[in-house]
Amino acid sequence: MKEIHDFKIIRREQLGQHYFRLVLQHGGTMQPVAPGQFVEVQVEGRPEVMLRRPISVHDVDQETGTMSLLIQIVGNGTRRLAELREGDSLNLVYPLGHGFSTDIASGSRALLVGGGAGIAPLLHLSKVLGTKGVRPTILLGGRTADLIPVRDDFEPYGTLCIATDDGSLGHKGLVISHPAFAESYNIIYTCGPTPMMKAVARSAAERGIRCEVSLENLMACGVGACLCCVTDTDQGHRCVCKDGPVFDTAKMGKWMNV
To answer: CA 93 from chain center: how many Å?
Structure first.
């Protein structure tokens, strides 16, 4: 069930020049949030930012009623959010969208591939997979090491692998060239830049591996009303905010081959 609620910012962390993390307290009974779901954030204090901003849910602690957002600074909206401080309030519409599927057998081999801001939803996913008896391989990529934030947070929940374009950390090259990517898996989950996700999805299809992608289309309303986030699937046009953002690539042949 969707809720509109004012969360209190109980912790703010600046993560280098490009990213920051907000830890939010509900103050009551928080709605369950599945890995891959997102929130629509109200941006106050900037008249030019009229619409809410969609942000992936980074982490969730249902018992304490806290939620974390990992945010990349890319425009007026996120720059305004970066000005918020501990004690401030943030109005969210949540939980939104269709998340990653986690109905997999204990002991399954899972690969999580994240690039840039696409790293964000994979922490919550890795934790939930752990409760299912799955310890995933987590492959994170970026142009440089400073563009792969919070990487150490993943280490307790899986086997962490890093790829950087310039070789400043881990494997030098794209994530799909990392040796871990070539191993055998039951399922691959990916979120990040579209070219990266398409390359991951195509490789998974060629190898007969189930794959889910989390698309990052512009999402103004979050509920499928404005139709600005529509994407073409093998089953017709679908709203990324309502029918996604996570899609099984078995139904995304048109998207993969564009």
So the answer is: 17
> Measuring CA to CA, which residue among 75, 85, 116 is closest to residue 14?
85
Statement: residue 218 has pLDDT above 90: no
Instruction: Quote the pLDDT of residue 164.
Output: 97
CATH number for the region 3-96 comes to: 2.40.30.10
CA trace torsion 28, 32, 35, 38 (10° rounding): -60
User: Where are the domains positioned within the chain?
Assistant: 3-96, 110-256
Q: pLDDT, tens digit, for every residue of 53-75? A: 899 999 999 999 999 999 999 98
Instruction: Kindly compute the dihedral angle of the four CA atoms of residues 179, 181, 184, 185, in this order, to the nearest 10 degrees.
Output: 150
Q: What is the mean pLDDT of the chain?
A: 94
Question: Which of these CATH numbers, 2.170.130.10, 3.40.190.10, 3.40.50.2300, 3.40.50.80, describes 110-256?
Answer: 3.40.50.80
Q: List, in sequence order, every residue forming a beta bridge with 237; answer none if it has no partner.
A: 232
pTM of the model: 0.95
